Each structure stands twice: as C-alpha cells, then as structure tokens.
Task: structure prediction
Amino acid sequence: MKKVLFVASECAPFFKSGGLADVIGSLPQYLKRTGECEVRVILPLYKDLNESYRAQLKEEMVFQTQVGWRFQYTRILSLKLNGIMYYFVDNMHYFSRDALYGYGDDGERFVYFSNAVIEFIYRGDYKPDVLHGHDWQAGAAVAICNIKKPVQSIKTVFTIHNLKYQGLLMYDAFENLFNLDRIHFAGFEWGGMLNLMKAGIFHADKITTVSPSYSEEIRTPYYGEGLEDLLNMRSRDLVGIVNGIDVKDYNALYDKALAVNFKSSIDKKHQNKCALQEQFGLPVHSDTPLYSIITRMVEQKGLHLVMRIMEEFVQNDIQLVIMGNGDKEFEDYFKYLEDKYRDKVIFYRGFDEQLSRRIYAASDFFIMPSKFEPCGLSQLIALQYRAIPIVRETGGLRDTVQPFNEITLDGTGLSFANYNAHELLDRLNASLKIYKDDYQYKALIKNITKVNHSWDDSAEKYLKLY
Ligand code: ADP
Result:
C-alpha cells in the first residue's frame, strides 16, 4: 500500500477557487478505490470553512515552525471525510483571511505552509512514501523535502496545474524565509527573484501536468512562461496525465439541479432548455440553438476571440448564456452584449454552481476557445450534460474533445487550431449547420453519450508513477 501525502492550497468541498480544488477533492477517492494507495491531504486552514466541518476538527499537534530567523505558531488539525484523512495547517496570521489568495505576502504564506508541512512529517508518526505537491503553493514543500536530511528518503511528485501562476518572491526571501544552505539558492532563483514553481520543478523526482498535450506545449516558449528550458532539461521525468471528473456528481441522469433528468434524450434536453429560457426571460423556443460560456473571465480562456466575433454570430437565430466573473474588460463586454441583444443574450455575473448545471443541461453548444488550457474541466462537464463543446485545440481541450467528422460521423465536438477569432467564427457557423442536420446532430450526441471522463484510467497512471 503506497502512502501518499497531497500538499495543496485548495480542495473541494472545503475551499475552492477553480479546477484545482475539484482535482484534489476527487482524485484521492479514485486512488483509494484501486486498493493499492492511501492518500492523505494537507491544506491551509482558511477562514471560510463551513461550520459543520469546523466542528469536527480534531487537534493533532501544536509546534513552532521555523521561518528564517523567526518561529511561527502552527497547529495541525485533522478531519476524516468519506474515508480520506485531511490535515489543516492553522495559523491565523497567514490564513484567517477573506480570500484564498491575492495578498502581497502570498509567497511568504505558502513558504510558511511548506515549512509547516515538512515539520509535521518530521515530528509526527505519519510517514508518507511520496509527497505529492500541487502547483506553486506546494513548490517549496517539494524542494525542502528533497533537500532536508530527515525527510529526504520520501519521494516527491510535483504537478503543474497551471504554469502561468508561479509564486515569485524577492531574492532576499531565501535568507528570510528558508533555513537552507546558500548552496541551494540556484534551485529557487529565476531572473533575480525566487520562483516557487521553478523550485518544485527543479527538485521533484517526477513532474506531471494535467494533460499530455500541455506537457509537450510547456516545453516551448509560447506556453513555457519562461520555464521552458528547465522543463526541457527535466523532460525525462515529465509526464502528462489527463484530469477526470466525478461522473456521479456531474450526471444529467441524477442531478437534482436540473428541471428534467436525462441521459441522451434530446426531447428531455430541450425541456431543460425551455426551463432555462423561462427562468431568464428569453423567448421560449425549444429549437433555437442555445450556446453558453461558463468561465473565470481571464485572458487564458480565449475571451478576446469571443469579443471579436460574437456580435456577428449573434445576428443568427441563436441564444447565448454567459456565466462568470473576472477581468472588467470581459464583464463589461458581456454586459454590453446583453443590453444590446436583450431577446438573445443573458449575462449572469458571478458563479452559481447549481445554476451552472442548469445552463450546461440547457445548452446545445458550449464555447471554450482557450489561449492555453492545462486540462480544463468545464468541457468535460459540458459533455456530461450533452452540450457539444466548441474548443481550441490546445492542452487538455485537444486531448479530450475529438473534432466531429461530417463524413465518418466520428468525434465529440468542434475544434479549431489557431488562436484566431475567425477560425472560432467558422466553427460556430459549422455548429449551426450540424444542429440543423438531424442525422449529424444525433450522431454527435450519440458519440458524446459513449465517452467516459471518470478518473479511473488516470488514477491507474498516478499509481504507476508512485
Ligand atoms: P479553471 O480551473 O482554469 O478555472 P477548469 O475548467 O479547469 O478551469 O475548472 C473550472 C471549474 O471551476 C469547474 O468546477 C467550474 O464549475 C468552476 N467555475 C467555472 N467558472 C467559474 C467562476 N467564474 N468562478 C468560480 N468557479 C468557476
């Protein structure tokens, strides 16, 4: 039985800002089911923990964590949920704040977190075989685990969920926050600063990314975010394992949020569409094709392409529902579009999990033209609700959506290669044709019904890696 400790900064159902929390919340369950692996998870204890979980927390240990020349109070709490043991690092100064991230001292917060994790392993009875760190917030934990003698025998895996966010610190943080010999400085240094993502990649025994395509892409300057040389140097130990989703949770047949449950029935899917049209005050027409976008509104998600061509596409007899929040530029654009095309476009600013499920179920097509996409979960969720994904062929989108072939009738979505707005428009226009062609549309939905994006295959791959 392999003992693996996940070190991560978020995890559903406790704390979530995006896809990372879904992965940390679901993968341990599937690894457990293999019968050959026991995963525990260690997280910061943020302020916003649901009261029912908080009441169940058990104190495991209290100690002082050395952070440079200072000592910081650390309390480790634990909670068992659905057979998985979760540990929480409690320090009010660093983590009892309103948001998970976005503070000037984020780098310091997660170096502290990493030091505390290593101290916890060193002092306690629980000794994992593998420390598996996720994203830059766990980069220092991987590095320290590799360097410090008492824990050095533990193997390390580092997973890149998104290379864009790297965790940068001023170079003097090496003296002030770490307790490492100066000889190790080079493993952290990047462009005159410290880079925690680099430290994880540099030190880990094995490195993974969340899709095979992304693991290739990040070795090039376009996607490498400045770390491509290091990633090429370490390519022998770099693998891509595609994310799965919890297919019992995201399931149109059982999901209580939907107006009507369904598996592949197009009639029942249309009933969900009519229910959503009614809810949003759109004209209720079951055969008007409904498009949707559900996303964090950042440049990564390809929203500049949408901005360039959507007004032209909206001239067709379609409806468009957008849900999300983020950069003002995008929010303002979707508000403008909604105001101008009141009978066609709805913009829900913010994110509502239950409503998002109703939108997926109501949508005929789901638009996700990302500039880069490490894996992407939204397109997988869309497939689960029989919303046909329209994606750019990058990263996990390329690995999980097969372009529909109008002759052979193979494929599960529509896709385009280049980051170009008119390639997106071309695929949107093609989707309208498919929608009107009963034969093609039914074949495409049938293909989607057959795909399985559960964690089972990927969990086996992680197990082999461990
Ligand atoms: P990313 O992690 O880059 O945001 P993914 O597609 O990997 O994108 O994961 C998206 C996850 O976040 C899904 O669980 C989705 O339901 C949720 N989500 C989508 N849009 C938002 C949003 N605006 N705010 C918060 N969560 C969102």
